[in-house]
Input
Amino acid sequence: MNTAEWVNGNYWDQRWQAAETGWDIGHAAPAIIAFMQTITDKDIKILIPGCGNAYEAEALVQAGFTDITLLDISETLVTQLKARYGNLDAIKVIHRDFFEHEAQYDFMIEQTFFCALNPALRQQYAAKAASLLKEHGQITGVLFNREFEQEGPPYGGTIEAYKNIFGTLFEIKKMEDCYNSIPPRKGAEVFINLKKK
Output
């Protein structure tokens, strides 16, 4: 997938329309929900970019969070999400390219978005994430801790590479093997909690 396909969203529209969504685990990622349950301020502003079916958003609302923004470049998906979550005041759904989005958040949740981006965009992703976060804002979520034989997406990576990408803009509070991955991804994910410097 080249950058142009990412920017115009056609690639992802086609994937959703054809139900080619192998990244979709069918429920919220346990590692993300377990971490967010430790957050006591339920009114923080949360962004979930490249949100997919956004099971995390539903779980967060059930946990009492009140301000969640879902962002995706696929118009097909966004239409589905608006139908699913349109009656929930706590969830806003936006059809936009992450790199063109402008707002300020306390938390950004990462779940299968970073790995969908061409690796050439990873430094740009880190810079954009930092610009979207308030002072001391945080990214939390999971990244793949493996390489893939086939050409992506998804694209894999290593902890060492991720430290180089994020280390200048973020304090790495946690970047370690994910102990509570779903079974098919056990041993292949790293949990991250990064704080904007």
